[in-house]
Amino acid sequence: MLERIFHLSENQTTVRRELLGGLTTFMAMAYVVAVNPRILGEAGMPVEGVLFATCISAAIATLIMGLWANYPIALAPGMSLNAYFTYSIVLGRGVPWQTALGVVFLSGSLFLLLTLTNIREHIVNDIPDCLKQGTAAGIGFFIAFIGLRNAKIIVASQATFVTLGKSSDPQVLLAAFGLILIAILMARKIGGAILIGIVVIALAGIPLHLTNLPAHIFSLPHPGGTFLKLDFRSALKLGLGDLVFVFFFVDLFDNVGTLVGVCEQGGFMRDGKFPRASRALLADAFGTMAGALCGTSTVTSYIESAAGVAAGARTGLGNLAIAGLFLSAMFCAPLVGAIPIYATAPALILVGALMCGSVAKVRWDDWSDAFPAFITMIATPLTFSIATGLSLGLLSFTFIKIGTGRAREISPLIWVLSALFLLRYAFLGTE
Fold first, then answer.
1. What are phi and psi of 129, to 5 degrees?
2. Judging by beta carbons within 10 Å of its beta carbon (0-12, 13-18, 19+), is residue 218 exposed, middle or buried?
3. Fewer Cβ atoms within 10 Å of its own Cβ: the N or the C terminal residue of the chain?
4. Where exactly are the structural domains of the chain?
5. Virtual CA dihedral for 77, 314, 23, 84, nearest 10 degrees?
6. pLDDT tier at 246, thresholds 50, 70, 90
7. What does the alpha-carbon distance between residue 364 and residue 213 come to, in Å, rounded to a whole number?
8. How far apart are alpha carbons 28 and 302 in whole angstroms?
9. Which one, of 297, 264, 320, lies nearest residue 74 by Cα?
């Protein structure tokens, strides 16, 4: 049955590799179970209800991605969009969180409409190859930077923006040890290297009092505080139309960028096209709608899925394990929350290094391809946004093709997207 559904032999993988990859992805992104409720809790939402919504929406979207699209890509409420939900909409504009959830549901409905009409699939497949490769490398730099920051190897600096952290910090030392350990295991081609490293680092932190053992392992979910609390009537007001557009715009290109980047790394692209793109894009549409109904912000694909791909996942089978772990996390939230962030940081750094291999595929001898790819690579980590990196890369692609008399290489859809990006920066530049 598994062979018939997931085509394991065709994708040269095994049940063990898929489940190991799924477990690795979950370990790398388990922080969302603890972090998302904290952020949305600042908007006045009941934390217990948000935790339930986080796990349910992640499980639903991840199952759809695995069973319907057969890709090893996990989904959960996005970290950038939950911050926008809390700090810009609820706290910044004074919009009730119930109304903001209605806005999220409307944006998810728009995702679904555009997916069913194949518009989103055309967007994915019409992105030039140089931007797909640049996006993959840019995400690599991005998640490596996140990993370095989480490990406190890189810290903020008023003088130089960022600088080297304190080498005497025990967390830095443990993360550095984990980084070397995982790198050695990967170089020796030992299966489960990333997962082994995460577990070893977390356990090593216990005697140093850096890994906090949970007071309780199990806890019961409490969905009532947020379940079906969204306010459609207020969300449909004309004045909230720009908020729907922002949620839609940011998640569309953040999700597209993540899908392209992870698929480039996993070798899933075929002649520059993304097979079963519409099926994959349905996952975040349904996930976002389910999340809004249950009580959380927009659901999107997670770049941490690259950790599972690096561990060997090639099909959606591992997503069954991820979905099951998210459902279990509703009852084991204290245990999941005990995984320290410095333990998963080395995994992100090394997966980032793997993703940077896409740089070699860029046609550096053709500056009209090389420059947009470079802009995408550099803008993604520096703006801390996959969507922004992709949008700036696409705009530079359009401008340089026009300037070099090669406008015929710009597809009609890229013309439309370029115009939308210009409008976005003109009217939503302060968001």
1. -55, -40
2. exposed
3. N
4. 2-427
5. -10
6. low
7. 50
8. 10
9. 320
